[in-house]
Structures are given as C-alpha cells and as structure tokens.
Design a protein that fits this description.
The chain is α/β, with parallel strands linked by helices. It has 16 helices and 21 strands. It holds the Pfam family GMC_oxred_N.
Amino acid sequence: MKQGQVSQVQIMTPPKSFALFCLNRVFNYVAFVRSVMMARKFNISLVVAALSLITRILPVAVAVPDSVLRARHVQTPEELRDSYDYIVVGAGTAGLTIADRLTELPECTRRIPCFMWNPSDPNGDRQTAHLYNLTSVPQIGLNNRTIPLGMGFGVGGSSAVNGMAVMRGTAIHFVPPNPVLAADFNITYDIQAWGQYNDTRLYASFPGGLNPAINWCIETIYDGLIQTPGIPFPADGHAGNHGVFYYPLSVDPKTRQRSYSRTGHWDGLNRPNYDILTSARATKIVLSGKENAATGVECILTDTEKRVTVKANKEVVISTGAIHTPLLLQLSGVGPRMLLKKAKIPVKVSLPGVGANFQDHPIGPPIRFNFTKPPPPPTSNSTHLPPSEGQGQGLVADLPLPVAAPSAFPAIASSLARQDPASFAAPGTDSSVLRGYKAQNNLLAEQMLSSAPGSLSFLHWVIGYGTAPGANPINFHPTSRGTVSVDPDNIDAPDPVVDYRALTNPVDTDLMIAYLEFYRRFFGPEGPLAGYRAVETAPGAKVTSREDLAGYIRANYIPQAWHPVGTAAKMRRELGGVVDDELRVYGTRGLRVADASVIPILPGGTTQLTVYVIGEKVGFVVLSYSHIASCPETDFMC
C-alpha cells in the first residue's frame, strides 16, 4: 500500500502589538494568541479557507481541578441571583466551552448561568442520548417526504449524541493508533497537525480495532484508490490537504467512553462563580433602549411552565445551535421584517439573514455492487484488539470535483456561476441575502474547477460501513439553501419551522449524478477493481438516463448529516450577514451568537470541532474586552 507524505502546516504569527496586548491577559500562551488572531480576521470572501485555518491550531482546553462537585445547579427561580454579568443561552458544544472559559479564573467571582432545555439532571447518566423530536416541512424536491432532524437535547448538546467522528477543527489531545492496527491498515498521521495538549479533557483517538467484517472492504477499496489518477494520500488529511485518510473518534482512550463537551467542560468543575439552569427554555432576549442592549433573558421553566426573566449586566451569548438560534433571535424581534410583522412580533432589528442560508451535508442515495469474484481475505494482525467504540474510526476519501467528476465538472461549475440565486431561493428572500448567495456560488464555482492542494473537496466517501461494496455519497458543499423560521401562526411553539429546500437548486442533482457515475467507473469493468467483476445491485445498471437517476436521487436523498449551519451567518450585513467578525449581532449591543449558525458555508468535514473553536473564540474575545487582568468583583452567569 502507498505511504502518504507528511503535509505541511503554516503557522502565522500575529503582529507584535496584538501579541503584547494578549500578554497582558491571562490567555497569553503562544498557540492560543496566534489562532485567535487568525479567527478574528476571517472574511466572507475567504470564509471557507479561514475556517479551516483557525480550526487547525486552536487549543481547546486547559487544566481544571477534578472534583466530585460541579458548578451550582439551579433548579428553581428562587435559586437564581438577582442578576449576572454574563448569560450563555445553551449548554451544548460551544456553550459549555464558553462557560468554562469565563469561570476558570480563580481570582474572578463572576456568575454565569447556562440555560438549557434539558430533560434530565446534569448529574445523571452522561451516556444517555437525548434528541429533539423535530421534523422538517414536506420537501417538494424529495417527493414531499419530511425529514427528522438530529440534534442533541441535554448537557453537552449534539457532541453528546453525534457519531464521534473527529475531523480537524481544533487542537485536542490526539492519541495515535495502536502500531499493529496502523500497520494492518496503513493508518498514517501527522502529529504536528494536531498538537499535544496533555492537560486537556477532550480527546481524539483510535480506540480499538476495525470490524473484521469490513476489513476486506477497506483494504480492497484502499488498493483501488491508489490506482485512481489524481487522488492524494496525505499522511494526515487534517493537516490542510484532503484525499484518502483515516479519522479518529471523540473517545477517551483510557476510559473508552465518549469525549464530548460535557466531559471536557463540565464534569469535575467546582466553581462558586458558575450557575447552570436546566429544564428551562429561553423565549426572548430582552433588548433595551436605542442601542438594543441585551439586558436579560426571558425563559419558561418547563417543569412548571413558570416564566422568569434573568438580568444580564454585560452580555448575553446565544449558543442554541443552527436550528434554535434563529428562532430565539426572531422571537426577540431580530430577523426578517415581513416575517416578524406577520407573526406580530415587534421589530427591534431588521436582519433578513436570520434563519436564511440554512445548509447541511446531504447523504446521497445508495449505490451497491456484488463482487462475483471475491477479493482475497485480508491479512490482519490486529484482530486481537477490542472492537472500536461507536461506528469505529473510519477511512474516508475526500475528493475535489475534477477528480470525482472529470468530465462533468466544467459544466457543473459553469452552471452554478451563471445562476441567478433568486430563481432557486425561497419566495420573498431579501435582496441582501440573494447577494450573499451569489457570492457563495461564485466561490464554490471557482473551487469546483480546482484540484490543487488545499482546494475544497466536494465528494465525501466514508469507506467500510456495511459489508457490501458501494457507497452513499455525501456532498460537502450543497448549493440549495433552506430556511428556519418562527411559525407566524404559533409563536409559542417550542421549535421552528424547518425547510431544507432540498434539491431546489438543480446543481445538487447534477453533483449527485456525477458522484454515482464516479462509483460506477470505480467498481466497473474499466476501473481499478475490474478483476472482481462487480455487478451493480442498486440502483441497477439499467438506471442510466438523467431522468431516471434524478428520480432515484429524489426518492433516497437525505438532506442532513447532523451538521446544520448558516442561519445566523458571519458575513457582511449587506450580504445577508447576522453577526460581525467578533460574532456580535448587527444592530444590538452586548449580544453575540456562538454556535454553528454563524458558519456561512459548510466546512469540508464534521462540524463538531469547528464549533468548539467558535466557543473558544467568544470566550477569548469576551475576556479580552472585560479587563479581566484586574478582574473586579462582579457576577457572571452562563
């Protein structure tokens, strides 16, 4: 098997003035300063590259004392303080990260409450999976199918229930694979791409062996990919360049338990300056005065249906995810003017981008084959290893469009570049949002033409799931844009109206057809695995016309992989943006958003670690501007 080459990572040093500024703060270690400097600079025209750059080197945790105690768990209105300096709404991946950062300084006495609509006590079983019960509206492009949404519902958010795939987002403690396992499957890595932070409590590891039932599949397909022109094999696909590589899992290698936001940023904390409120649903951010200053949060205690208002002295940070963050902003009077008027919500700030630009990684229809001449059995010396946790660490092939669609990519790129976004956007989409969609189309169309190192990958192939050869192609960069909005006829509903608008842009169908044709070439009589004489079983060799393939796609397309982003995007306001470079909501004071909703375009990988980075960024920026060096006696709440 082919050995990959170590990919290089460029570390940028910030200007001296910024470094000196940070040295006067508590967060003055070099890696953090460098990465935050880059994080504060990302721009809509460079947003895709910038997001991968900042996620490449940002540390995720520092030491906290172990203790059987945790932050104060508030359960009744009487236990709440009169006011808090800071309120973080949401205790998921980013929310717990922010709360940890804002309370970890022992000389500070800030109180931070975290509002969570959480069905269970945070001191309970941390392995219990809870999911929101929420489905989309019928999807016209999917034969009117409705789509269930996968989102974590509890302390830790979606990091508590996701597939645990670690695709480079932030520096955590990386644990290399067992040497025998690595030798069996040619698992390579670049330790410099990850960094080693021994005092963190978040992990990326290879916790066990691969499933023997799919070993043959991984080895056979890996060998075939080596023979496919244009496919790179980096030592570590998390170092800046994609290709064929293995990804680790969010698993503590010692306990073999899930490593997630709760274990990294909540369990073991013993801080008198940290309050956490569960079983509460935030219903409104209180915006006061001409500046629309965030002065508090209204919420419902779900056990009693009692409404309470918690006061904020300095800032409120919304961290409720790409589905519920736009709902909370709209309920607070921040959003599209016509939608708010229809819902009879007083307009505080007209921001048409709130709830627009909704994206997720779609999972395409299955394509399956049978080998009439079976491949030779794998030679494995790692069968003695215990099974991996979850679905197991995986082999992926992340491919640029010229490699995945060598004949079709010019026409697909040209079609996207020529489009008028208004032709495929939701009815009534504001002109500023349409300008943002056009900017995204131009960026994606340009990247569709490139296979240079560092270019965007479009086809994401997770190899080895299932025992039959084939795939479910995943599109890293869909072009359809959905919406998330308050129900104008029922503003008290706990969840928004979610419309993926799946396949409304015909380019997404073009991409899926191109991906299916890639697999037909790869497994077919002219491909690298021709010796195994594959017979296509789904959709079947007779399904060849564009009309038939499009129908097969519509019937089997899943427009989400638990990676929703974009509904409060960090873009310029004139492009439909909702937050600025420091994630402050336009037209308000003291209100930020810190979750996947601020990501304007889907990253080429899972979103978990990118969201950790967003939490780290906000924690750093808030502390930087609150003069924490002197740390006055104030109250904080998360």
